Predict the structure.
Amino acid sequence: MNVRATVRDHTLGVAAALSTVSLALVFAAALRVVPAEAIPRAPTAVVDAIPHVNALVSAVALVCVILGVREIRSGNVQRHRKLMGTAFGLFTVFLVGYLYRVALVGPTAFSASPAVETAYTAILGVHITLAVVCVPLLFYTLLLAWSHPVSEIPRTNHRRVGRVAAPLWAISFALGVVVYLMVYVVG
């Protein structure tokens, strides 16, 4: 049996396994399970540039998700696939950079007036929650799209789950940019 057929027959299980591994990596980095000294260190300028690059990556990914939704609504399946695949690739780039930086230096501190700190904490909390919720939804919809011919997609849960995943993903990207602006522009 080939990989695509196996994924098609076990999409939910594969999505669950990939989600578990991905989220374990995220939490391991955030909790600094691996000592920073054990991680190869890039030059300081590279590590310092990661949040700025990630903000740009998130903004471009947000545009890709919005355009991807627009394209599927207009019936352009191929552009939808390319845009959503690009958004997922950008998300992966973001995540690798974010995890690398957090594993090395920990989370970025934010201090401001109590009201601004409260708003920041709320926005960050919603952003993180949506990002975590989106991971299994994204894996599931992308695996359905990858493992089924286009003609079969309407008979899968791709559309139903995608209608939930896409706006949550877009909001998470948008809030990530807001968090960046609060930390690096406002703060």
Summary: The radius of gyration is 18 Å. The mean pLDDT is 95. Residues 110 and 183 are 6 Å apart (CA to CA). The longest helix spans residues 114-147.
